[in-house]
Amino acid sequence: MAPKRKALLGGAATSKAARSSKGSTPGPGTPRSMISDSSDVSENEGDIEIPDEMRKSMVKFDTSSDEHKYSIGRGINDMASRHFDSSRDFTALKPKLDAHNRPLWIQGNFVIVLESFHQLAPQAQDFLVTVAEPVSRPQFLHEYKLTTHSLYAAVSVGLNPKDIISTLERFSKTPVPSNVKGFISACGKSYGKVKLVLRNTKYLLETTDPEVLQMLLKDPTISECRVHGAEQITTSAPKMSGLAIAGTKEAAGIREAEGLNNADQEATQANPTKKEVYDALNDDDDEDDQEVVHAFQIRDDAVETVTKRCQEMQYPALEEYDFRNDNINANLEIDLQPSTQIRPYQEKSLSKMFGNGRAKSGIIVLPCGAGKTLVGITAACTIKKGVIVLATSNMSVIQWRNEFIKWSNINPDDVAIFSSDHKETFSGNTGVIVTTYSMVTATQKRSHESSKMMDFLRKREWGLMLLDEVHVVPANMFRKVIGNIKAHSKLGLTATLLREDDKIEDLNFLIGPKLYEANWMELSQQGHIARVQCAEVWCPMPTEFYDEYLKAATRSRSLLYVMNPLKMQACQYLITYHESRGDKIIVFSDDVYALEFYARKLMKPYLYGGTSNAERQEILQRFRDSSECNTIFLSKIGDTSLDLPEATCLIQISAQYGSRRQEAQRLGRILRAKRRNDEGFNAFFYSLVSKDTQEMLFSSKRQAFLVDQGYAFKVITTLHNIEKTPNLCFATAQERRELLLGLLDDMEKNKSQAEYERENNALMADGNLFNSKKPGARAKAKPRTMVRRGAHLLADLSGGQDMAYVEQNKPARGKKKVAHSDFFKKQQRDKERRKKLVDE
DNA sequence: AAATTCGCAA
DNA sequence: TATATTGCGAATTT
Fold first, then answer.
1. Does any strand B atom come closer than 7 Å to the Cβ of A666?
2. Is residue A721 a contact partner of residue A526, using CB atoms and an 8 Å limit?
3. Same fold for the domain at A331-525 and the one at A530-740?
4. The pTM is what?
5. Which CATH class is domain A331-525?
6. Strand (E) or helix (H) holding A442
7. Where is the composition biased (Basic and acidic residues) (predicted)?
8. Nearest nt (C1') to A822 (CA)?
9. Over the Cα atoms of chain A, what is R_g?
10. A594, A618, A686, A743: least surrounded by Cβ within 10 Å?
């Protein structure tokens, strides 16, 4: 048989086949997949030859092949296909006999799949959240992935590799693959060995293992950052005892009476496996007692470099703060108000932070409205040392201060604000400072007071640094904060640990591992955040609009699909419908032009960056209090730092490219709805999308995060009885045509301004108007545009600017001119400035 | 005090 | 795929 096949295929084919197999056949050490037997055979060259076709399909179904490694990329188009990905073929794994009693699968590529409907799922999920990264948590199958970071986090909350493996084994339907076991124990060996400690305003790198110390000292990058002549050996005796997290005191008291600590209590309730795990944690602490600690000092500005390097060496530097044994820094008189009771998930997240009686640095991820502030304050109340709070805007700085006063018994004088208009310090020798990221990053020249304040902040040793909206930190500017201010522990808070760039990884060494991530669905089932119905409304485009869309350039395209009249109708319909139900509605639009147009057309108040502070307050007040005003239009301004608990319905008419963070944040606006605990209450989230345009793609990208959180997006293609909406806008073809013409004019105006700029510059530069035209760019423009632009240019050059043009073409558009006047003014200024530059 | 300008983030 | 536009805060000018 074999020789015959060989003869048929010919030499060329066989050699090609052999070559192509090299990259994909599993090497030693990789888990044996369903095809590993046959590939073993093929490695013995000349024994049996396998035809190309067959080899292709082998590669296709080879779970260990790199080529088909499952990854959740940024460009996922649908959520179903990956469930059929070849790498998700489990046939290679032999299930255990009692597989149905166990809720999860573990694959060789470190992906763990959990049956969320399984009886044991809650326990398994508790455990998985600790050791693995949640990738996707839709309704039935949850997906987690073991990563170095997630294991690092697990180790840092005190789990040891042996227990992780045995617990996984217990929950898994299939045997834990050996490479997964290897990975976990490798991580466990090195993690937690190195610690970054702040002592007497000096940063020390600390380890108990002499070998690790040598390794660190030998590393060129790290020794570079060392402060020489400061090596020291100390003995430390950290003691674990039942630390009560503030706000859980009563519960803690009961537990103590029963002779159990927090962890044990939880463990006995959950399952025996977990109890063992936590027992192991306690053992560890006993061993610590008389160990010798080796440490050396590193430069303040090198902290980021060193932690990053340690991360790369697989010896991540854990930051822990033994605040109860810190006698150097003054204690802060702060405790939660006696009446305050924190919620179970808040307690859980804090127990991760204070898991071994010290404060660990890291990040807690909670959805908006789930009480992030209270978590931060509780952490501060537990540590009871100086606290510095960093927020993104002045508004949230004030909010933080108010929350501190509201939830804790701190003396209001000890909560100081450091911002452009408040530069106070606390009265005592320690306290809380609330400030913004931009205040402490200080690139520009500072006023005298500011720099004095900065010196003060820099010189101190803070017990806790609270980083609000921590996802902004990796931006180049803001990461300076970390080096600038010395804090023993850092707690990052965010709702969406997401960025569209890849800098989110940096947080692992800038702040610390993710300590806890809440499951949105679970919180909404428990009534902590509102239940939300999500829908994507597909609005068809009238043909004349679609024609223009196809012809237009990118920028104009977005204007066209946002201004789609049928979308406006849909928006109007939804507003009418929800207002009649008694909902309060927020309409979001990123495009200020569209925002203004919609709002004026539908006669609703609108709010964007340009509206003055007084007007803002007034509109928001009206929206909050008055039953007359039930709808407001917001630009990006509403994405952050606007708190409107009245809102129960949200309509999105235009959005930023594919920003998942923005989508999540917007949804967050209605999660804290006041009425969420009403019987059968539902909040609504609509995304209006023009059919068959780029918006569809953006929309699906944006939804990825929420879908992973378990939200289901319904697609609505027809709105019932939309034609019965009173005063439906753009109902006639005539109106729509006028709208389109108006739009085209405005687009024209903007474009010609920009082009005038370019040509003007070119003219100034080389004095030749005609050479300045870039052939590539021009080729794309449509003939009609060309003609118009020409005419317009002439008008500009003759000094008439655009006034005549406006009057002539759109007499009835007075309102829109306002929107652009600023733009034109700015253009004008720029033009003049550039002219001046050239003249000089 | 209000307006403008600059730098930065998304 | 990269860009353009928007928002925000600090500093400077009027």
1. no
2. no
3. yes
4. 0.75
5. alpha beta
6. none
7. 819-840
8. B4
9. 31
10. A618
Å between A48 CA and C2 C1'?
A: 51
Residue that is written with structure tokens 């007359």 in the block = A628
d(CA A414, CA A335): 13
* pLDDT given for residue A85 in this prediction: 55
Positions in chain A short of pLDDT 50 = 1-48, 59-77, 237-241, 249-289, 758-759, 761-840
How far, in Å, are A17, A26, A27, A52 from residue A23 at the CA level?
11, 8, 9, 15
Q: Which residues 6+ apart lie within 8 Å of A357 measured at CB?
A: A238, A239, A240, A241, A243, A285, A322, A324
According to the model, what pLDDT value does residue A382 have?
Answer: 95
DSSP A329: S
**Nucleotide B6: closest residue by CA–C1':** A444
pLDDT of residue A396: 87
Tokens matching residue A652: 């999105």
Q: Per residue in A389-428, pLDDT tens?
A: 999 888 888 889 999 999 999 999 999 988 877 888 888 8
Residue A482 has phi, psi (to 5 degrees) of: -60, -40
Q: What is the pLDDT of residue A808?
A: 22
- What does the H/E/C string look like for A253-294? HHHHHCCCCHHHHHHHHHCHHHHHHHHHHHHHHHHHCCCEEE
CB A52 within 8 A of CB A17: yes
Q: What is the per-residue pLDDT for A837? A: 41
What is the spatial distance, in angstroms and rounded to an integer, between the CA atom of A783 and the C1' atom of C3? 24
The ranges assigned to domains in chain A are 93-190, 193-237+291-316, 331-525, 530-740
Sign, Cα dihedral of A3, A4, A10, A14: negative
Q: Please say whether the beta carbons of A113 and A140 come within 8 A.
A: no
Q: How far apart are CA A76 and CA A82, in angstroms?
A: 9
Homologous superfamily (CATH) for A530-740: P-loop containing nucleotide triphosphate hydrolases (3.40.50.300)
| pLDDT (0 to 100) of residue A1 | 39
Using CA atoms, how far residue A31 sits from A66, A162, A731, in Å, is 13, 20, 63
pLDDT of the residue at A429: 87
Nucleotides of strand B within 7 Å of the protein's CB atoms? 5, 7-10
Kindly report which amino acid residue has its CA closest to the C1' atom of nucleotide B4.
A826
Q: How far apart are CA A343 and CA A526, in angstroms?
A: 11
DSSP A801: T
Q: Is the CA virtual torsion A387, A392, A397, A402 positive or negative? A: negative
A500: the nucleotide nearest its CA (via C1') is: B10
Runs of H (alpha helix) within A289-363: 303-312, 344-353
**Measured from the CB, is A241 under 7 Å from any atom of strand B?**
no
| pLDDT for res A523 | 92
Fill in the DSSP letter of residue A193: S
A744: left (phi over 0), alpha (psi -120 to 50) or beta: alpha
Element containing residue A113 per DSSP (H, E): strand A111-115
pLDDT value at residue A291: 67
Query: How many CB atoms lie under 10 A from the CB of residue A77?
Result: 10
The position carrying tokens 């319909």 is A573
In 3D space, the residue among A426, A424, A346, A421 whose CA is nearest the CA of residue A378 turns out to be A346
Distance CA A755, CA A321 (A): 58
Give tens-digit pLDDT for A637-663.
888 767 788 899 999 998 888 899 999
